[in-house]
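Q&A FORM
Asked by: J.P.
Topic: structure of O-pyrocatechuate decarboxylase

PROVIDED:
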Amino acid sequence: MRMIALEEHWGTSVVERALQTVGITTPLGLPAIVSQKLKDLGAGRLADMDAVGIDVQVLSLAGTTGIDKLPPADATAVACECNDIIASAVAGHPNRFAAFAFLAMQDPESAAAELERCVTSLGFKGVMINGTTNGLFLDDPRFYPVLAQAEKLNVPIYLHPAPPPSTVYEAYFSGLPGNVGNRLSIAGWGWHVENGLHSLRLVLAGVFDRFPALQVIIGHMGENIPFSLARSDSILTPVASHLERPVKDYFMSNFHITTSGYFTLPPLLCALMVFGADRMLFAVDYPFSSNTVGKAFLDNAPLTPADLEKIAHANAERLLKITN
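REPLIED BY: S.T.
REPLY: Here is the structure written out as tokens.
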């Protein structure tokens, strides 16, 4: 069966050098093997895919936290250079790689223009946006040019978590021993619930009433939204009288979720019961998570053949218009 993985990351020294100009010298602090895999856009990455039977990776740029601190023109230049790099990698292996654009969101007009270039000229499948931009969530009206462009181009926004702002970190995650607070603030809990909050903000701000065809992808088995959606809907819909529909309806029409990094059965069953297989897609979160573990999890999941087809590749082919 064909396998398309949607949240698979790459890295480049272009971003590392740019971050150094604003005093960020270790953007990821990753083990050497992970950094090596991030920068491998050829034989090593393909071998890792072939070893478990992943046919296509949709590549997105990692390690960009802090880019919003650059002057807008500098950040836009970095984004364009990075998008050109990954476009070249995709062109070298067009049947194995696809790409999400990276945008300098502190200049929304330029970001919207770069998204158009990436989709119409470079063949990208959408855009990945990492967390907030200078403390602002994506529902802020200044980002409407990017949202409008994504809707116009009929490509999704993959909303990915990022480390919390320093004030949030200090209030919620400080005072713990060793590196525990840092891990709690990101993959251990913090960035999943913040990304779920980010998603709820998009709904509650009326973004999908303004841009009804806009599609958003969130990873990590729905960033805790499936578990809490009924509760959130029951509390928020009665007070969100400005919205055209109930809160839960927007998640059923404007969101897709992926399996990235979540490879245990209870979250999968919850996501299936709430979102259904038509809105779920396979992802590993490579190289931060293991291709072997992610693929084995899907292979052994208690899915009907029809639902497995949807999650493994058919939904990605439809949403991202992947035909090769």
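FOLLOW-UP: The chain has a mean pLDDT of 96.
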